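Task: complex structure prediction.
Instruction: return structure tokens for all chains below.
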Amino acid sequence: MVAHDTSRTREFVTCDGNEAVASVAYRLNELIAIYPITPSSPMAESCDEWAAAGRPNLWGQIPRVVELQSEAGVAGTVHGSLLAGALTTTFTASQGLLLMIPNLYKIAGELLPCTLHVSARALAAQGLSIFGDHQDVMACRATGCALLCSNSPQEAHDLALVAHAASYRARLPFIHFFDGFRTSHEVAKIRQLADSDLRELVDEEDIAAFRRRAMTPDRPTLHGTAQNPDVYFQGREAVNRFYAATPGIVQQKMDRLAALTGRPYRLFDYYGHPQAEHVIVAMGSAVETIRETVDWLVARDARVGVVAVRLFLPFASGAFLQALPATATAVAVLDRTKEPGSVGEPLFLNVAASLAERGPGAPAVELTGGRYGLGSKEFTPGMVRGIFHHLCDPKLRPPRFTIGIRDDVTDLSLPYDPDFDLEAEDVRRCVFVGLGADGTVGANKNSIKIIGEQTENFAQGYFVYDSKKSGSVTVSHLRFGPREIRAPYLIREAQFVACSQIAFVGRVDVLRYAARGATVLLNSPYGADETWSRLPHDWQATLIEKRLRLFVIDASKVAAASGMGRRTTTILQTCFFALADVLPKDEAIAQIKHAIEKTYGRKGPDVVTMNFAAVDAALANLHEVPIPMEEVVRRVGLPPRYPGAPAFVRDVTARLLADEGDLMPVSAMPADGCWPTGTSRFEKRNIALDIPTWDSALCIQCNKCVLVCPHAAIRAKFVAPEALAGAPAEFKSAAFRSAEHPGMRYTLQVAPEDCTGCSLCVQVCPAKDKANPRHKALDLTPQAPRLAAERVNWDYFIALPDPDRSTVDAGTVKGSQFLPPLFEFSGACAGCGETPYIKLLTQLFGDRLLIANATGCSSIYGGNLPTTPYCSNRDGRGPAWANSLFEDNAEFGLGLRLAYEARRQTARSLVTALRGRIGAELADGLLQEDPGTDAGVAAQRGRVAALRAALAGAAEPEAGRLAELADYLVEKSVWIVGGDGWAYDIGYGGLDHVLASGARVRVLVLDTEVYSNTGGQASKSTPLGAVAKFAAGGKAVGKKDLALMAVQYGYVYVATVAFGAKDSQTVAAFREAESFPGPALIVAYSHCIAHGYPLQLGLDQQKLAVDTGYWPLFRFDPRLKAEGKAALRLDSAPPKSDLAKFMANENRFGLLGHVAPERAALLAEQARAFVRQRYERYAYLAEAGKPPPTPPHS
Amino acid sequence: MSLETSYAGLALRSPFIVGASPLCDDVEMACRLQDAGAGAVVMRSLFEEQIDAEREALINDFLRTADGHSEALSYFPRFDDYQLAPDRYLRQLGELKSALTIPVIASLNGCHAGSWTTYAARMESAGADAIELNLYHLATDPLCNALEVEEAMIETVGSVVQRVAIPVAVKLSPFHTSLVQFARALEHAGARGLVFFNRFYQPDFDLENLEVKPELHLSDSSELLLRLRWLAIVSPHVKMSLAASGGVHHAPDALKAIAAGASAVQLVSALLRDGPRHLTSLRDSVARWLAEHEYASVADLRGCLDLRRCPAPEAFERANYQRILQSWRL
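Output:
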């Protein structure tokens, strides 16, 4: 745990903005109410970990950290806790903050002091964005909360304290905010506030007064009256004086902080030329960029400056006008938010009002307002310069503008020089390109720590991830220098560039980050002699043109030889220190070793020795590649991208994939956020090192591999032999083992460039070679040598006809897997346990499927640009998918269903009205209730075609309307999909209501037993004894039985499934749910990376989960009652193995044993009892539901 | 009568040692075994591979999932101090030491000299009265000859002995070509005791699924015979103490082992099957037998049937093998 010693006076530490804030909030509160949301979650996680470790707050207490079911729940708890007199805080962002708004009005209305720390983030509008801007906090302007903004991790640390201290004095709730990701996730060297600083700023008398106001029956009071027209208005005005006093209080606290630490802050800070004429007003990390650019411009005689806004609300106009130089003639106000249709964004409006109210005689100031940086769009010195350029020239000065994008629709965007760079000479800039989770980011954070904490240098790190959960590319941007670093933007010209994966060469434009003369480090299995010849021409040309130096190390080999296994981080880190010239080499190596001792000393001397050996071996194996000086001709005339793809793919998707998204103009964007499906197939990510090879002779054609594949990258078909006439030479097929399809050929094909190499298909394959059981019908073999042939095979396979749906038995695993998946090649983790369920859903019902998808993993791999995995069949039909929010998914899905039913009803009425024209037989056929089967759907589609023909040329307006609505006569299926965080927690109220409504919706809960997408926080689904974030001490209560709760309605179809344990039951449950004439719920066990074991073992774990009773399988079908049978059928046998066997394989259970063995043993025992009792309960229900035995005849 | 004995430099009140097993995972069980008459306890083995693998698993699991996605930079809480197997082992050792008065022997299982042997010193600091070093090596490398295997073992023993002042006993497998020579080499390397023999779990086959399955069977008295032979052969040639492990279930088993040269016998299967009370009856039966046969002490019986003193040494030797085979008649 990163828990810096705060008892010492103001030491330097390196941490990110989130931790800088959490360290203050934790020390100053008694109750911390939490709920996960990006990018604020790490603040809550830190607090939970510190509390679990028994770290006290400023008053010697361990704060109580409590997780709620949603941010709305958090706000309610915060409100109650404040009213009852406990020092309370929380952390949130984006939609979470929106959910708190109703209570923020209450908290402010009741003058309850507290501070909410917000890593400010964009809001979901035309699309979701996890990234930073100020839309969330600006949505809270009217709540009555004070809004205080920090611009850097150091400021966030300092102003967190100012916010808390001022809040108690002012009696107002504060929202302390800072830029999501750019500040919350930037790792920086900051000077830490000591406990004594906190004591100095927070006035004990203010706190005592707050406590005296607490609600207690010892001094009975009443809050929350319902007020009539006679007094409500006056009551609302009664708070004005508190708002008037607040700016003064905040400034006092800032002044006190300055006296203690030497770091001065003002409500509005001005930087720049003392007689500036042109001034930008802004808040957030952008101020840092503007300040650096202003310094550069002032040094070149420009009269420019910037006003940094810290206290946005209450807006102290006087203080603002005081900060603005009197010489200013033109002011540009920058807002990192968007209020469509408004006269201007909030900061602009406040500045405009302040200037307008200066009174007569005030010098004229030209005002303009602009938006920038939405959703973490980069904001660079070039943009600042561009703004000043337009501000300085009255002819160019726009009334409103945007910067950083190209708006070719409303022409609001200002041009700027994208190549303008402002990096200081004495700052070392280093960029590392790595593979997600390959240790590159961790090593860089460690390097920053070493340099930041062990030397006089300042350090900054910022890490960019792509949107995939497997095979993602990470880019680390590191700066080191002798002065504080103010550069909250990405590095473009690095003196040192490293690439941890040889596979990126040719795929990722690593060298674009390299400045002229830079040093490049490549982790290459080829030596110094061979590497050059293996580089693509573009790399060679760039290396020569930019006069780069190239070094190589075979880090994997060195790691293996030093006993480090596959961990290459220490080795690459050593090479970085040896080459990057941040510290003298010997000092750098000594520092690394010192850090190793510090980190691993307690884990035994052998670990330290091993790491030391790796450091030494790294230096010995680092070699420079000689670069020949002859010119290399760049390849010109690249082949056209994505030939044959739809225009949108060629015009838009292709550019997003080429990392050109920032260059896309506004006109290229769908204005309503509606994107085409079926684009992931163009991505061809090539991330698998090994792919399955099929032995057609050994294969028993069970299709289990097809079912378990999380990425739909292995598929089966059967075709007539003549269809294979032109098959590629290496294309494989075998006689189809099917009595129903004699003479057909069976084929199984992998998509070599879409497979992730997770090996689940190989794990599930039951067909062993009798003579050599290690060889199965599917074996993993290296991808590279097979790529060319398998690519051809795959294209050929896809073009083969799909089996006719009417001829396969979709009720079996084997049959269902001949149906083409309409969900493919998503960005989910390799080996994901959720996606096989979604894929199955699309195979069974995809042509008539509407999906309402709760926010979470499934919405990220389901809908995160640049590509979309949902796709269409040959008829152009396929799932229509939408994500509304996290909390509302069940209700959103109900809306989709009700809209369908309304349109369907209209269509049916029109059929009845037009019965004469279309004929009685066809009309009656169309009006038959559809059972939702493939055959029924096919028959109805036939009737709809006939209907259209019958309506052709009809003059009646009803005929036209019916023709438009005709497709609604075919049954559509609405599936509501989401994870356990949604179903068990934040969306449970809605889910419960929708199930209770009786509506014909189906709900698929992908149960990973944690909030997987945000990094594994506990939900009410988390099992007893598991360690998760927000349950660092191990979850002390059992998992909520969502399935049983739904069973109690009696009219809801409910099933629990685990495809890795009993795939046939999974298929049966999906089909039964679909055919059920009411609400249906499937709770699907989904193994997950957050369980802490290699996912290739996911299927074995699923089997163990069922065998140990950890995950009992059942189906509850109310229809069976009518048949006189028990509605609840247990599909799994009584537990036959000890639960410990299941738990022992997963780190989520094992971790507690490493931290608190006694508690781990106790919880494990309770978990056993829990599992046993639950099975007994199910068995009782299954038995009790059976009809009584017929009495014997007397 | 007194059953006192001396084993590997430790004075034991009885020759019955609770062998390396899960029996001492529970302090209460260990106390009951002490009350039932145990002379010493050996803790469950801490494996060389376990030390490495557990650490690797933890580190790898954190690494495998760390910093892969902007919303999930990790999947588990960060803790400063994970207790790995050695930490937990040492804690258990400490608890056993405070609860028991009889010697507690810590057990390390490994066969390569390496930094893991430093755990012996940590075991000593935690209060271990002796170390039992279990040299279990499965030679599957076709390039590694028998001499190299034994030299590595001797080096391992030497490196452990160097690190501690407490006695080190070595537990062996029966499959050494020249066990007497090897035993002497181990003694030369500093071993103070030898335990005959390791019972390793032998894999069985699942013919239906064509899989290999590890199996665990408890021992029975028939396994004792192998121990008796080698105790009798080795004991005249070494000064260090010997112990029998594997197949000691009943009083005659224990007495035979002592007669073959053992100073102590280790029990696991019998105790797992019948509980601590079995130990008491075993102790009483042995004491009764010794008294009835007028042996004043365990030491008096020890070695009376070893290869040097037994009346018919050829019974141990090759001639016996020939006679037995040829005497078999259908």
